[in-house]
Amino acid sequence: MSAATAEPSAIFVRIYTDHFRSVYAYCRRRVGADRVDDVVAEAFLTAWRKIDEMPTGDETLPWLYGVAHRVLLHQWRGSSRRKRLHQRLVSLGVEPASPPETVIVANEESRMVWEAITGLRETDQEVLRLSLWEELPHGEIAQVLGIRADAVRKRYSRALKNLTKEFNKLETKNVGSALLGKEAGSGH
Amino acid sequence: MVTEDRMRTLFIHANPVPDASSIEFDPIGAAAYLETIEQRSSDMTQVESTTQNRDTERRGLRPLLVGAVAVVAVVLAGVFIAQIRSDDAVDASGVTGVWVSTDGVYIQFNEDGTYGASWTIEDVAEGSFETGIWRFEGTEFVWVASTGNCMVAEEGLVGRYTIEPIDATATNWVPIDDPCIDRVADLVGGPMYRVSP
Prior knowledge:
heterodimer, A: mainly alpha, 0% strand, elongated, B: alpha+beta, eight-stranded antiparallel beta barrel, two-stranded antiparallel ribbon, 5 helices
């Protein structure tokens, strides 16, 4: 159902007022503070251009998330090579001046979660975020990603399994490194 | 070792913006933002209108130009296709080894007809996000997943591609038919580059 029965500008202002915070939070959870304003602006600009297609009621926010998701997808594709370069520089002991994504990380466990999730495919990462951070039901996640609800259920369960595997791998690696450091420190 | 339940909790705690209502919002900004957008749209309309006027002026020459461009395009396409056909087609020996896509996905094609895909070269042999089998059927490259996102109801989706050589280390993978959107997304972002034989 379209929202275009009222004046488009009035609809836009209402949608912007009602959903700005949610869309901003969605974007901030996925990109650094330095880029979030641009991404949010691009998402709302796209929403304005497609206002005739915008659904009403409970479907509006998932639709806006879908718009923001596609804006981010374009950016992620472009930045993936920069990420690889960044990882390579870090592995060589060179700290780049500005990391490609600067996220707020509360503690070591959260840092490991962020590191572990990069081992998953983009769609799987997004299913987890939409489910656990935006708290969307599978039907609405399906709407955001343009896939079927039963596919969301399968992807969610596979993504959580793979994330757990990646996390445990990192934990084992970190414990191993810590033990090696301790041995070296004790003079052996 | 964490369990999936614990992982779920850790993931929720890793949310960098747990409370969206804490985000500052200026309600007056909505109208101002709309004005900016409308100004931008109006500028775009003016640019389009100017372009259309110029187009009208050039309309008299258009049929001649279109004809000339079409002839040149057909000739160039013929030369290009002839050159591609004369190149050595990519076969099994040309595929085995490790490749990286433009979007940074590493894929290792093994001589025994298996493959693995991963975000890192260290994990590619294990295939941390996808494994499966590959083969050629004539000039078509066919791959079938055994694990990962290209599995539906325990069955691997079959992808068919044409591999177009660009040079000794780069190829374009053009989907002929692939129902697995993740695999298509990994490959259509640009050329695949050979990392090791």
